[in-house]
Amino acid sequence: MTHTPSVVLEPKYYLTNFTTLLSGVKGLYQDLLNESEQQWLARFYALEEDEQCLLVRMMTRKGEWFRSDKLRYSELTNPETLLANLALSGFVDLALPGSPKLLADTLLTKPELLALFPKLPKSLRKSELVALLPEQMPHSVSTLPFQVIRLVDNQILPMFCLLFFGNRYQEFAQFVLENLGIHKFEQYEISIKTRLFHTREELDSSFCISEMSLRYEEINRKSREDLIEFSQLVPAPHGKHANRMYQKLINSVARDLERCGALDEALALFQQSNIPPSRERQARILKAQGRQEEALSITKMMLADPYSTDESEVAERIASPLKKKLGIPLPKKQVSTLPEVHRQLDLTNCRVEVAVVEALKAEGWDAFYLENQFLNTLFGLAFWDILFSPVEGAFINAYQRQPLDLYRKEFIDSRSILIEDRLNQIRSEGIAQLVAVNLNKNGLQNPFILWELVDTSWIELAMYTISYQQLAGLFEVILEDIRAYRAGQPDVIAFKNGDFMWCEVKGPGDKLQHNQKRWMTHFERLNISYHVCYVNHR
């Protein structure tokens, strides 16, 4: 078991985290920063520490408008002086908004709004009052009990976050988890050759599309006209990262167009994307339009070169009724009978899985209730160095528990030689040496490992009981589709007399899930002992 150390954050921890972000951006992307961004950094570093703190406090809050009475922090004294200095340095503007509506909407409470405009009807909601405001600011605005502040260059943080995190959102919580010792990270290579962006055009394109994604959240997504107009405004992407963001956004717009009945427009947009569910939706739209042969053609492409296991299975489900309608003979379904065991156990004081573990132990088995963590842990240990290998765009800061491309097809393509060499090594030597070395990394973040469940007893049983060929075969299944196969593994693993078996436990009324059946198909192929254990309370 890992224990979280007792750590108290320093009062100005957020400034340390922010400067860490800036150092990361400068270290990797100094050559891509434009003149305005370079000047901003120079001006920031010229500020006094408390001025930097107040600026970071504002930058990491929502919006660009603030009121001075809401900027009180125990670690900062004389905020009025700090604000005045930030204004002189060009980081904030202390002028009032251009209109009463903007002032009221962003900064005023309803009582404060009524105090400024006493003739407004008090019974209305604030939003209704704002709609009634005049264009001119009243003279009484000088009596406001606070100073108005506008953050200048409020797009600088989203840009730096995009460079550091790969998205424009503020993930500073990750710094805090590391500060507290809750998360510790592997030391992997971060360099210009592995960075996410290589040209300013790629960076600007990604930032622009991220802006469009934010705008998309604000439009009426049930309006066919608004959706079509928005789709025409999305710019073509430049670079791999921007292209992934673009395809994800296009899929969302196309799906909403489909829901609005704009099938032709939706189909045209889906055809611009090659990530799921693009081809599935194309096939379904073509089917709905009566274009059966075209729909079947799409499913054939999905089956011939599926993006994922899910896409392959979706294609099969779509293809069957299409073939039937077109008079194409369907192959007979293979009905497999899964091995079953039925038990009557006392479930009064424990989970059904725990009850099965105890029953197996009484029969002489070393049994463990680990669900997906059994095989995932072995995989995470055996492939540790490959998971954290220096691949372009995979690791862009020191706070990642996994490569950015882990669930994309490129993960395998970019590491194919390393992966095949490792599988061959496992087939000939097993995983004992790999696991022994990587257990020294206990506590470091790994997407496949929950350290609190790791126990050398079941790891050693696995290493010396499961054949090398079976281990390699099981890992190949995970590598076939990491997102699909990291789940659905049986609940209980058990060992006895040099043999092992997997047991999927089902309590009263519980049924097998689709992803569990997937695994059992592979168990049959790999000649691995398993069964489904149906338990009733006695």
* Global outline: globular
Q: Which structural class best describes the helix and strand composition?
A: alpha/beta
Strand content: 5-15%
Mean pLDDT: 93
Which regions contain 5 or more consecutive residues with pLDDT less than 50? 1-5
Description:
The protein has helices spanning 13-29, 35-46, 49-59, 79-88, 100-107, 110-116, 126-131, 156-165, 173-179, 200-216, 224-233, 240-259, 263-270, 278-288, 292-304, 309-325, 352-362, 373-382, 384-387, 410-414, 416-429, 432-438, 456-465, 468-480, 482-485, 514-525, and strands at residues 65-67, 92-93, 148-151, 340-345, 366-369, 492-496, 499-506, 530-537. The chain has 538 residues and is of the alpha/beta class. The strands form two sheets. A five-stranded mixed β-sheet has the order 4-8-7-6-5, sandwiched between helices. The longest helix is centred in the middle third of the chain and has 20 residues, at 240-259.
How is the secondary structure organized here?
Blueprint lengths: L12 H17 L5 H12 L2 H11 L5 E3 L11 H10 L3 E2 L6 H8 L2 H7 L9 H6 L16 E4 L4 H10 L7 H7 L20 H17 L7 H10 L6 H20 L3 H8 L7 H11 L3 H13 L4 H17 L14 E6 L6 H11 L3 E4 L3 H10 L1 H4 L22 H5 L1 H14 L2 H7 L17 H10 L2 H13 L1 H4 L6 E5 L2 E8 L7 H12 L4 E8 L1
Parallel strand pairs: 4-8, 7-8
Antiparallel strand pairs: 1-3, 2-3, 5-6, 6-7
Helix pairs in contact: 1-8, 3-4, 10-12, 11-12, 12-13, 13-14, 14-15, 14-16, 15-16, 21-24
Give a nutshell description of this structure.
This protein is 51% helix and 7% strand. The protein has 538 residues and is of the alpha/beta class. Helix 11 (224-233) packs antiparallel against helix 12, helix 12 packs antiparallel against helix 13 and helix 15 runs antiparallel to helix 16 (309-325).
